[in-house]
Design goal:
This protein has 86 residues and is of the alpha+beta class. Helices cover 43% and strands 22% of the residues. A 3-stranded antiparallel beta sheet has the order 1-2-3, with helices on one face. A hairpin with a 5-residue loop joins strand 1 and strand 2 (28-34).
Length: 86
């Protein structure tokens, strides 16, 4: 199962003021915490993300496919886009 780079994910998370830890939820990569409270679980273990592949085409496709939902600050889609796909 694909995992992600926890080091890069933590850097991206810090930029938007949240913390990430390996997820305790089955099938998810990361849990996102804001102010010590869990706000989302992101990233499917079944798929690779930009932090692991560095594939610009996959990144562009993901960002286009999730354009509407990732625009909602605080949503799981927002966190996934900002942490796993930047």
């Amino acid at each position: 199962m694909p995992q992600t780079s926890l080091t890069l994910a933590k850097k991206n998370a810090a930029k938007i003021g949240v913390e990430v830890k390996v997820s305790t939820r089955k099938g998810k990569k990361l849990d996102v915490f804001k102010g010590g409270e869990k706000v989302a679980s992101i990233g499917s273990l079944d798929y690779f993300d930009f932090l692991t592949t560095g594939d610009k085409k996959k990144q562009a496709n993901y960002l286009a496919r999730h354009a509407k939902t990732r625009a909602v600050k605080g949503s799981p889609s927002y966190y996934a886009a900002e942490i796993l796909w930047r």
